[in-house]
Design goal:
Length: 327
């Protein structure tokens, strides 16, 4: 008993923080596109931040709950309703058996996250529950969720009214009009002409409709190499900016291939990956170079903020626990 998909949406998959340590064996890391929103969804319901959630893209599903649960929604605003009554992102929401959560087309951004208190009761594959669509492993049979699919919840929990929520400012990055994406130099940065390096930072690029969880294809000023150097295949990471022969950059995303052979002009910094992941097709963005030390500082600052929010949430749940009843 847990939750059941009654309308599938466009692309709903199960994701935790990813399948690390197996790229050398040919398995993608996968995991969430927006790890910030995903972890906040878990923090709100007092789960471990790495617990598996539902990642819902562009158009959300409709879900009927078959037991008492406490859930949270973060990321893109999909106009959520429970039993036709509007509810808010960013707060704990109590549901009971028979309640239906309805999600629609994202108003902004792409990816929304649904966490369930206690987590989803699913087996792990190579230490992760993340769905890897390319090789059909993890999650529920390695595929997106379809109508009729049921997922068990580890610890169904009664809930009462909650009067707190996270600040909506935590998700302002999804609504930004002018997107500046920061990067550090890639391993083959010096392979590119000086003019191409300047164009990469001075000109705007737009994401194309060919973009998906594997990579975001960009359209803009083509980038050229100084010469036709040969590159051995190298390991890839989330946010690597590869440049194929046509000169149009490709940013590798969560379901990226384990290795790649295109020269890399840049690496998107960790702090800007959530903002990048929520960029809709045809949106324009500008690249800005930053130092490794600045990228490290911003990553640590983000983690510190997550830790503080988790402490806040734990205190709120400690106040609430005397009123709970596990079933």
């Amino acid at each position: 008993m847990g939750l059941r998909i009654i309308e599938e949406g466009l692309l709903t998959t199960i994701q935790d923080l990813g399948r690390f340590g197996y790229q050398s064996s040919g398995f993608s890391v996968s995991g969430p596109m927006d790890s910030w929103a995903m972890q906040l969804a878990n923090i709100i319901v007092n789960n471990d931040p790495s617990e598996a959630v539902l990642e819902m893209s562009f158009i959300g599903p409709s879900i009927t709950f078959e037991d008492y649960s406490i859930i949270s929604l973060t990321g893109a605003d999909m106009s959520p309703k429970i039993n036709d009554k509007a509810v808010e992102n960013g707060k704990p929401l109590a549901v009971k058996a028979g309640d239906t959560l309805q999600l629609r087309t994202a108003k902004n951004g792409i990816h929304s996250y649904l966490a369930v208190k206690g987590g989803l009761d699913l087996p792990e594959f190579l230490n992760s529950k993340s769905t890897s669509l390319k090789v059909a492993v993890g999650g529920l049979h390695g595929r997106k969720l379809d109508v009729g699919d049921s997922l068990a919840i580890k610890f169904p929990t009664h809930g009462k009214t909650f009067n707190w929520r996270l600040s909506s400012r935590l998700f302002d990055y999804i609504k930004q009009d002018h997107l500046i994406i920061r990067f550090i130099e890639g391993r083959q940065y010096d392979w590119f002409t000086e003019q191409s390096k300047q164009k990469f930072m001075a000109d705007s690029y737009s994401t194309t409709t060919q973009s998906d969880r594997m990579g975001y294809r960009l359209k803009g000023s083509p980038l050229y190499f100084k010469n036709d150097g040969q590159l051995l295949t190298e390991g890839t990471t989330f946010g690597t900016v590869q440049v194929p022969a046509n000169g149009q950059p490709i940013i590798l995303m969560a379901d990226r291939q384990p290795t790649g052979g295109y020269p890399k002009i840049g690496q998107i910094i960790h702090a800007d990956l959530p903002k990048l992941s929520q960029t809709r097709p045809s949106r324009t963005l500008t690249f800005q170079k930053c130092s490794l030390s600045e990228a490290d500082f911003l990553m640590r600052k983000g983690q510190q903020q997550l830790d503080q929010l988790q402490t806040f949430s734990k205190l709120k749940w400690k106040e609430w626990e005397p009123c709970t009843q596990s079933i």
